[in-house]
Write a structure and sequence with these properties.
With 85 residues, the chain is of the alpha+beta class. It has one helix spanning 3-29, and strands at 45-53, 63-72. A two-stranded antiparallel ribbon has the order 1-2.
Length: 85
């Protein structure tokens, strides 16, 4: 494995983890938001990752990580009764 291939793989993994961390922090920051601009409660987001093979390293079967998309969590909302309101 060439040094540049190793750096490319490591860099793609770090970028993917940075996106996951940003999405996780958004989910935590908006966990109790009950009204968004669209009118409904905040829906948590998930990151979809994929392993993409490197073009020049086909024999070694090396892959880098790519963020495919950021999707809304399809699970139903949790209904909570707040008696103080």
């Amino acid at each position: 494995m060439k040094l540049l291939s190793a750096l490319r793989i490591a860099g793609s993994g770090l970028m993917a983890q940075r996106v996951r961390l940003n999405i996780s922090s958004m989910n935590l920051a908006n966990a109790h938001v009950t009204r968004t601009a669209e009118g409904g409660p905040y829906r948590a987001k998930d990151v979809v990752l994929a392993a993409i093979p490197l073009e020049n390293e086909a024999k070694a079967k090396l892959s880098e990580v790519k963020v495919v998309e950021i999707v809304d969590d399809p699970s139903p909302f949790k209904e909570v009764y707040l008696s103080r309101y």
